[in-house]
FAS1 domain-containing protein
Amino acid sequence: MTTQEAALYSPPQCPAPFWHRGRAPVWGMALAVMALLGGCQQSPARQDTYTTPISTCAYMMPTVSGTRTYTTGRSSTAKDPDTQQSSNPIDSAVAYGNPQTPAFCDRPLSDTLRSSIELADYTHLLGSTDLLATLQQAGPFTVFALPNAALESYNAQTGGQLLNPAHPSQLRAILGFTIVTGKWPHKALREAIRAAPDHRLSLPTLNGQSLTVWSDPQTEQLMVGTPHGLSSQLWVMGIPQANGVLYFTRTLLLPPVEQTVSAAPAH
């Protein structure tokens, strides 16, 4: 430890044992002091077990939903007529960032999805079908998970169809289109796209239709969806999992049939 480091952190000091002032045998005194000091050298720094798991790797998953839904307190001084107390919502003078959530490579997709704040809606909908239980199996699976904003916007546009218990098959078809059978890390996707004759890769999904992945010729960003329908850039680029790979999309993915229905004018 350097002199500068010593000035920043000083370990707790242990009092000298009472027999240190006497004439106890040298070896006995030395052993006693070593045993006592051994318990006084523990660092007060907390070990973050979330980002330093044992014998595995970890990634941090982003969260933006909190920023999107946060509103500041109003500036008016209006008071409640009954209580004569301010009706302004409580607000903080300190801006707190959105907490990222950890994804451990040795966990199954089902566990990681449950731990992600940004995928809360997606995970809830998977749980209302049997697809979340499927992602607990050996697989492997490659998941292109839909963020909260994309699902909430689509649910509002369709009059709450995503949460309608009368249409479970429709929900399963939408979610199944985001789950590919097989393990496709980011590097493998890039190599397969370059090797494909038209530089487009068709992947089989759990709803029976093919999901296409390609590289945008202008930005070289990976795109996923249908070539002549809805498509999205990939956001989180392939977190390894015990039973597959996890990606985040930036926007909504829909199977071709659902795209036609959602584009039809409402009556």
